[in-house]
UniProtKB/TrEMBL annotation:
Name the UniProt record assigns to this protein: DUF2913 family protein
Top-rank taxon, per record: Bacteria
Length: 202
């Protein structure tokens, strides 16, 4: 694990412990109070420079999310993601769990995430996607058939991807996944592959 991930993981862990303590002490009892507590905690941490300079950007981002989106920011969920992604625990999980974790992170960053039925995926009723709006769209049948009973990937996972793909790549990489463009007429079509899934099968 690199020092950057370690710093972010430490920040997230401290925030989650502080929130747990506040809940136990009766200082928060609702999602709105959790969000307000974490915004205040992050603001104090930023002002007092409690953490290394390397995570200053993460603190600023979390504060902006919490202040701007309120409950929708889901600060506890973001901290949990940052902790799991940086602590090394995520890599021990199966492919499906790590993909679900990445997709949760995608939603937390404001991307659209949808699982499409067959008629929405192709044909006359295919969902029209905007290449400029960041989104991840999965084919339900591919998702259903793509994993064994142990959560290991068994087939490439078809996805249409739009928007800022480098940002998506960073999220996927943290969770041990990657994307591979599918040659052909559909520029948005990709295969999502777990890190140990052979690229030639994609």
């Amino acid at each position: 694990m690199d020092n950057g991930n370690l710093g972010v993981s430490h920040l997230a862990w401290c925030g989650l412990v502080a929130l747990h303590t506040a809940r136990r002490d009766g200082l928060t009892s609702s999602a709105a109070q959790d969000n307000l507590f974490l915004v205040r905690w992050l603001a104090v941490a930023e002002k007092q420079r409690r953490f290394s300079r390397g995570v200053a950007g993460d603190i600023s981002w979390l504060l902006k999310e919490g202040r701007g989106k309120g409950l929708q920011a889901d600060l506890p969920g973001k901290l949990d993601y940052l902790w799991r992604a940086g602590s090394g625990n995520l890599g021990a999980q199966n492919d499906l769990y790590r993909l679900q974790h990445a997709l949760q992170a995608v939603k937390l960053t404001g991307w659209i995430y949808m699982v499409l039925a067959g008629r929405e995926w192709c044909g006359r009723h295919q969902l029209r996607l905007s290449p400029t709006v960041s989104g991840v769209y999965l084919c339900r049948s591919a998702l259903d058939k793509g994993f064994d009973e142990h959560g290991r990937q068994t087939a490439p996972l078809s996805a249409r991807l739009t928007g800022e793909l480098p940002a998506l790549d960073a999220i996927l990489k943290r969770s041990g996944w990657r994307r591979v463009p599918v040659p052909g007429n559909d520029a948005l079509l990709h295969h999502l592959l777990a890190e140990d899934f052979p690229a030639e099968c994609g």
